[in-house]
Input
Amino acid sequence: AAIAVHNAQLYERIDQERRRLAAIVQHSADGVMILDSELRILSFNRALERMTGWKTEDAVGRDLDEVIAWKKIETGDLRRALADGTFKTDNGETVYVEGDLLRIDGLTLSLGIVYAPLFNADGTLSNIIANVRDISNFRQAQEMQNMFISTVSHELKTPVALIKGYAATLRREDVEWDAETVREYAGVIEEESDRLTSLILNLLTASRLQADGGIDLQLSDVRLDWLAARAVERFSTSTTIHQFKLNFPPKFPAVEGDEVRLRQVIDNLVGNAIKYSPDGGIIEVGGHCDGDSVTLYVRDPGVGLSERDRERVFERFYRVDGALSRKTQGTGLG
Output
Protein backbone atom coordinates (compact mmCIF):
# COMPACT_ATOMS: atom_id res chain seq x y z
CA ALA A 1 0.00 0.00 0.00
CA ALA A 2 2.84 2.37 0.92
CA ILE A 3 4.46 1.77 -2.48
CA ALA A 4 1.18 2.47 -4.28
CA VAL A 5 0.73 5.74 -2.36
CA HIS A 6 4.33 6.74 -3.13
CA ASN A 7 3.86 5.98 -6.81
CA ALA A 8 0.63 7.96 -6.91
CA GLN A 9 2.34 10.95 -5.29
CA LEU A 10 5.26 10.65 -7.69
CA TYR A 11 2.90 10.49 -10.67
CA GLU A 12 1.02 13.56 -9.37
CA ARG A 13 4.28 15.56 -9.07
CA ILE A 14 5.38 14.51 -12.56
CA ASP A 15 1.99 15.37 -14.02
CA GLN A 16 1.98 18.72 -12.26
CA GLU A 17 5.46 19.50 -13.61
CA ARG A 18 4.39 18.45 -17.10
CA ARG A 19 1.37 20.77 -16.98
CA ARG A 20 3.53 23.61 -15.65
CA LEU A 21 6.02 23.23 -18.51
CA ALA A 22 3.19 23.00 -21.06
CA ALA A 23 1.69 26.25 -19.74
CA ILE A 24 5.08 27.99 -19.92
CA VAL A 25 5.58 26.86 -23.52
CA GLN A 26 2.04 27.77 -24.63
CA HIS A 27 2.11 31.25 -23.11
CA SER A 28 5.69 32.14 -24.02
CA ALA A 29 6.09 35.40 -25.95
CA ASP A 30 8.57 33.59 -28.21
CA GLY A 31 7.58 30.84 -30.56
CA VAL A 32 8.45 27.34 -29.31
CA MET A 33 8.20 24.10 -31.24
CA ILE A 34 9.51 20.58 -30.73
CA LEU A 35 10.70 18.47 -33.66
CA ASP A 36 11.51 14.79 -33.90
CA SER A 37 14.79 13.54 -35.35
CA GLU A 38 13.24 13.57 -38.87
CA LEU A 39 12.25 17.26 -38.49
CA ARG A 40 8.53 16.59 -38.15
CA ILE A 41 6.68 19.00 -35.86
CA LEU A 42 5.50 17.48 -32.57
CA SER A 43 4.59 20.62 -30.63
CA PHE A 44 3.67 24.15 -31.74
CA ASN A 45 2.77 27.00 -29.38
CA ARG A 46 0.39 29.97 -29.67
CA ALA A 47 3.11 32.54 -30.42
CA LEU A 48 4.09 30.47 -33.46
CA GLU A 49 0.47 30.44 -34.59
CA ARG A 50 0.56 34.25 -34.63
CA MET A 51 3.92 34.39 -36.38
CA THR A 52 3.29 31.82 -39.11
CA GLY A 53 -0.48 31.93 -39.57
CA TRP A 54 -0.65 28.13 -39.07
CA LYS A 55 -3.04 26.59 -36.55
CA THR A 56 -1.44 24.11 -34.13
CA GLU A 57 -3.64 21.22 -35.28
CA ASP A 58 -2.62 21.86 -38.90
CA ALA A 59 1.09 22.29 -38.19
CA VAL A 60 1.66 19.28 -35.92
CA GLY A 61 2.78 16.23 -37.89
CA ARG A 62 4.01 18.23 -40.88
CA ASP A 63 7.58 18.49 -42.09
CA LEU A 64 9.39 21.59 -40.74
CA ASP A 65 9.94 23.03 -44.23
CA GLU A 66 6.20 23.02 -44.95
CA VAL A 67 5.46 25.34 -42.04
CA ILE A 68 8.71 27.31 -41.73
CA ALA A 69 8.95 28.20 -45.42
CA TRP A 70 11.77 30.67 -45.92
CA LYS A 71 11.45 33.34 -48.57
CA LYS A 72 15.04 34.34 -47.87
CA ILE A 73 17.63 32.94 -45.45
CA GLU A 74 20.28 35.35 -44.19
CA THR A 75 22.29 32.92 -42.09
CA GLY A 76 22.28 29.32 -40.87
CA ASP A 77 20.95 26.01 -42.25
CA LEU A 78 19.46 23.35 -39.96
CA ARG A 79 19.55 20.51 -42.50
CA ARG A 80 23.18 21.22 -43.34
CA ALA A 81 23.99 21.19 -39.62
CA LEU A 82 22.34 17.78 -39.31
CA ALA A 83 24.24 16.48 -42.35
CA ASP A 84 27.67 17.72 -41.23
CA GLY A 85 27.32 16.27 -37.71
CA THR A 86 26.72 19.39 -35.64
CA PHE A 87 24.04 17.52 -33.67
CA LYS A 88 25.75 14.11 -33.49
CA THR A 89 27.13 14.56 -30.00
CA ASP A 90 25.80 16.25 -26.88
CA ASN A 91 28.34 19.06 -26.95
CA GLY A 92 25.96 21.96 -26.31
CA GLU A 93 26.02 23.15 -29.93
CA THR A 94 23.01 25.04 -31.27
CA VAL A 95 22.15 26.25 -34.77
CA TYR A 96 20.93 29.77 -35.43
CA VAL A 97 18.88 30.45 -38.55
CA GLU A 98 17.74 33.93 -39.54
CA GLY A 99 15.73 35.14 -42.49
CA ASP A 100 12.38 36.19 -43.90
CA LEU A 101 9.55 33.70 -43.33
CA LEU A 102 6.83 33.33 -45.94
CA ARG A 103 3.66 33.07 -43.87
CA ILE A 104 0.72 30.93 -44.90
CA ASP A 105 -1.19 34.10 -45.90
CA GLY A 106 1.61 35.25 -48.21
CA LEU A 107 3.00 37.97 -45.93
CA THR A 108 6.63 37.93 -44.81
CA LEU A 109 8.07 38.17 -41.30
CA SER A 110 11.69 38.40 -40.17
CA LEU A 111 12.53 35.56 -37.75
CA GLY A 112 15.52 34.32 -35.81
CA ILE A 113 15.38 30.65 -34.73
CA VAL A 114 17.70 28.84 -32.31
CA TYR A 115 17.62 25.05 -32.70
CA ALA A 116 18.90 23.01 -29.73
CA PRO A 117 19.24 19.18 -29.77
CA LEU A 118 17.90 16.76 -27.16
CA PHE A 119 19.61 13.34 -26.96
CA ASN A 120 18.58 9.89 -25.72
CA ALA A 121 20.58 8.08 -23.05
CA ASP A 122 22.46 6.18 -25.78
CA GLY A 123 23.55 9.44 -27.44
CA THR A 124 21.18 9.34 -30.40
CA LEU A 125 19.24 12.45 -31.40
CA SER A 126 15.75 12.36 -29.93
CA ASN A 127 14.27 15.81 -30.50
CA ILE A 128 15.16 19.35 -31.55
CA ILE A 129 13.80 22.26 -29.54
CA ALA A 130 13.28 25.46 -31.55
CA ASN A 131 13.02 28.91 -30.00
CA VAL A 132 11.57 31.35 -32.54
CA ARG A 133 11.75 35.14 -32.19
CA ASP A 134 10.18 37.88 -34.31
CA ILE A 135 13.10 40.19 -35.18
CA SER A 136 11.20 42.52 -37.52
CA ASN A 137 11.58 45.55 -35.21
CA PHE A 138 15.28 44.80 -34.68
CA ARG A 139 15.81 44.53 -38.44
CA GLN A 140 13.94 47.79 -39.02
CA ALA A 141 16.00 49.56 -36.35
CA GLN A 142 19.20 48.30 -37.97
CA GLU A 143 18.09 49.53 -41.38
CA MET A 144 17.15 52.91 -39.93
CA GLN A 145 20.52 53.24 -38.21
CA ASN A 146 22.40 52.26 -41.36
CA MET A 147 20.41 54.83 -43.33
CA PHE A 148 21.08 57.36 -40.56
CA ILE A 149 24.85 56.83 -40.72
CA SER A 150 24.80 57.17 -44.50
CA THR A 151 22.68 60.33 -44.32
CA VAL A 152 24.81 61.93 -41.60
CA SER A 153 27.94 61.26 -43.64
CA HIS A 154 26.36 62.98 -46.62
CA GLU A 155 25.00 65.91 -44.61
CA LEU A 156 28.36 66.49 -42.93
CA LYS A 157 30.27 66.33 -46.20
CA THR A 158 28.08 68.85 -48.02
CA PRO A 159 28.54 71.90 -45.72
CA VAL A 160 32.19 71.04 -45.09
CA ALA A 161 32.86 70.95 -48.84
CA LEU A 162 31.06 74.27 -49.35
CA ILE A 163 32.88 75.97 -46.47
CA LYS A 164 36.24 74.72 -47.71
CA GLY A 165 35.46 75.70 -51.29
CA TYR A 166 34.37 79.26 -50.51
CA ALA A 167 37.19 79.80 -47.98
CA ALA A 168 39.78 78.57 -50.51
CA THR A 169 38.31 80.88 -53.15
CA LEU A 170 38.55 83.90 -50.84
CA ARG A 171 42.20 83.03 -50.05
CA ARG A 172 43.27 83.10 -53.69
CA GLU A 173 46.08 85.61 -54.11
CA ASP A 174 45.68 85.99 -57.84
CA VAL A 175 42.23 87.64 -57.51
CA GLU A 176 41.22 90.89 -55.84
CA TRP A 177 37.71 90.35 -54.44
CA ASP A 178 35.34 93.30 -54.09
CA ALA A 179 33.51 93.88 -50.77
CA GLU A 180 30.15 92.62 -52.10
CA THR A 181 31.63 89.26 -53.20
CA VAL A 182 33.42 88.86 -49.87
CA ARG A 183 30.17 89.49 -48.01
CA GLU A 184 28.31 87.01 -50.22
CA TYR A 185 30.91 84.26 -49.78
CA ALA A 186 31.21 84.92 -46.04
CA GLY A 187 27.42 84.64 -45.81
CA VAL A 188 27.50 81.20 -47.42
CA ILE A 189 30.27 80.10 -45.03
CA GLU A 190 28.26 81.36 -42.03
CA GLU A 191 25.07 79.68 -43.26
CA GLU A 192 26.80 76.32 -43.78
CA SER A 193 28.51 76.63 -40.39
CA ASP A 194 25.10 77.13 -38.77
CA ARG A 195 23.88 74.03 -40.62
CA LEU A 196 26.82 72.02 -39.27
CA THR A 197 26.24 73.33 -35.76
CA SER A 198 22.57 72.34 -35.89
CA LEU A 199 23.39 68.82 -37.09
CA ILE A 200 26.08 68.31 -34.46
CA LEU A 201 23.76 69.62 -31.72
CA ASN A 202 21.07 67.13 -32.81
CA LEU A 203 23.60 64.29 -32.71
CA LEU A 204 24.90 65.28 -29.26
CA THR A 205 21.36 65.58 -27.89
CA ALA A 206 20.40 62.15 -29.22
CA SER A 207 23.59 60.65 -27.79
CA ARG A 208 23.00 62.15 -24.33
CA LEU A 209 19.38 61.01 -24.31
CA GLN A 210 20.48 57.46 -25.13
CA ALA A 211 23.34 57.40 -22.60
CA ASP A 212 21.69 59.16 -19.65
CA GLY A 213 17.98 58.89 -20.40
CA GLY A 214 17.71 62.69 -20.22
CA ILE A 215 19.54 65.99 -20.55
CA ASP A 216 20.25 68.79 -18.07
CA LEU A 217 18.16 71.87 -18.78
CA GLN A 218 19.35 75.40 -18.00
CA LEU A 219 16.05 77.04 -17.10
CA SER A 220 15.34 80.74 -17.45
CA ASP A 221 12.58 83.02 -18.73
CA VAL A 222 12.40 82.65 -22.50
CA ARG A 223 10.49 84.71 -25.04
CA LEU A 224 9.31 82.22 -27.66
CA ASP A 225 8.07 85.01 -29.95
CA TRP A 226 11.58 86.50 -30.00
CA LEU A 227 13.18 83.11 -30.65
CA ALA A 228 10.72 82.53 -33.48
CA ALA A 229 11.43 85.95 -35.03
CA ARG A 230 15.19 85.30 -34.95
CA ALA A 231 14.70 81.84 -36.48
CA VAL A 232 12.61 83.31 -39.31
CA GLU A 233 15.28 85.95 -39.90
CA ARG A 234 18.00 83.29 -40.15
CA PHE A 235 16.06 80.90 -42.38
CA SER A 236 14.72 83.60 -44.70
CA THR A 237 18.13 83.75 -46.39
CA SER A 238 18.07 79.99 -47.15
CA THR A 239 15.02 79.98 -49.45
CA THR A 240 13.68 82.13 -52.27
CA ILE A 241 10.36 80.33 -52.76
CA HIS A 242 8.93 80.63 -49.25
CA GLN A 243 7.44 83.61 -47.43
CA PHE A 244 7.42 83.74 -43.63
CA LYS A 245 4.62 85.04 -41.44
CA LEU A 246 4.86 85.63 -37.69
CA ASN A 247 1.57 85.37 -35.80
CA PHE A 248 1.90 86.03 -32.06
CA PRO A 249 -0.59 88.03 -29.97
CA PRO A 250 0.60 91.25 -28.33
CA LYS A 251 2.31 90.78 -24.97
CA PHE A 252 2.96 87.09 -25.61
CA PRO A 253 4.23 85.86 -22.21
CA ALA A 254 7.68 84.52 -21.43
CA VAL A 255 7.94 80.85 -20.43
CA GLU A 256 10.36 78.97 -18.22
CA GLY A 257 12.62 76.82 -20.36
CA ASP A 258 16.06 76.12 -21.75
CA GLU A 259 16.67 78.78 -24.40
CA VAL A 260 19.28 76.72 -26.28
CA ARG A 261 17.02 73.65 -26.50
CA LEU A 262 13.95 75.69 -27.41
CA ARG A 263 15.88 77.43 -30.16
CA GLN A 264 16.95 73.99 -31.40
CA VAL A 265 13.31 72.84 -31.48
CA ILE A 266 12.13 75.94 -33.36
CA ASP A 267 15.02 75.72 -35.83
CA ASN A 268 14.18 72.05 -36.51
CA LEU A 269 10.49 72.85 -37.06
CA VAL A 270 11.18 75.78 -39.40
CA GLY A 271 13.89 73.84 -41.24
CA ASN A 272 11.52 70.90 -41.75
CA ALA A 273 8.79 73.26 -42.97
CA ILE A 274 11.12 74.52 -45.70
CA LYS A 275 12.45 71.07 -46.54
CA TYR A 276 9.06 69.37 -46.86
CA SER A 277 7.25 72.08 -48.82
CA PRO A 278 9.40 72.00 -51.96
CA ASP A 279 6.88 73.97 -54.03
CA GLY A 280 7.22 77.00 -51.76
CA GLY A 281 4.46 78.98 -50.12
CA ILE A 282 3.76 80.70 -46.81
CA ILE A 283 5.29 79.31 -43.63
CA GLU A 284 3.51 80.65 -40.56
CA VAL A 285 5.18 80.63 -37.15
CA GLY A 286 2.91 81.62 -34.32
CA GLY A 287 1.60 80.93 -30.85
CA HIS A 288 -1.30 81.40 -28.48
CA CYS A 289 -1.95 81.36 -24.74
CA ASP A 290 -4.37 79.07 -22.93
CA GLY A 291 -4.52 79.66 -19.20
CA ASP A 292 -1.19 78.61 -17.70
CA SER A 293 0.18 77.14 -20.92
CA VAL A 294 1.36 78.47 -24.26
CA THR A 295 1.40 76.76 -27.65
CA LEU A 296 3.89 77.42 -30.44
CA TYR A 297 3.23 76.12 -33.95
CA VAL A 298 4.84 76.09 -37.39
CA ARG A 299 2.39 75.72 -40.29
CA ASP A 300 3.51 75.02 -43.85
CA PRO A 301 1.82 74.07 -47.17
CA GLY A 302 3.56 70.67 -47.34
CA VAL A 303 1.97 67.22 -47.49
CA GLY A 304 1.86 66.78 -43.70
CA LEU A 305 1.91 63.57 -41.64
CA SER A 306 -0.57 60.71 -41.52
CA GLU A 307 -2.05 59.59 -38.18
CA ARG A 308 0.20 56.51 -38.22
CA ASP A 309 3.33 58.59 -38.78
CA ARG A 310 2.38 61.09 -36.07
CA GLU A 311 2.51 58.30 -33.50
CA ARG A 312 6.20 57.76 -34.37
CA VAL A 313 7.24 61.38 -34.76
CA PHE A 314 9.48 61.28 -31.65
CA GLU A 315 11.11 57.95 -32.55
CA ARG A 316 14.84 58.35 -33.19
CA PHE A 317 15.98 57.91 -36.81
CA TYR A 318 12.39 57.39 -38.01
CA ARG A 319 11.52 59.02 -41.33
CA VAL A 320 8.25 58.83 -43.23
CA ASP A 321 8.44 56.36 -46.09
CA GLY A 322 7.29 58.53 -48.98
CA ALA A 323 8.51 59.87 -52.31
CA LEU A 324 9.31 63.29 -50.82
CA SER A 325 11.23 61.78 -47.86
CA ARG A 326 13.29 59.62 -50.18
CA LYS A 327 14.25 62.68 -52.23
CA THR A 328 14.96 64.82 -49.16
CA GLN A 329 18.03 64.32 -46.99
CA GLY A 330 17.46 64.03 -43.24
CA THR A 331 18.67 62.18 -40.15
CA GLY A 332 15.35 61.45 -38.45
CA LEU A 333 16.52 63.41 -35.39
CA GLY A 334 15.33 66.97 -36.01
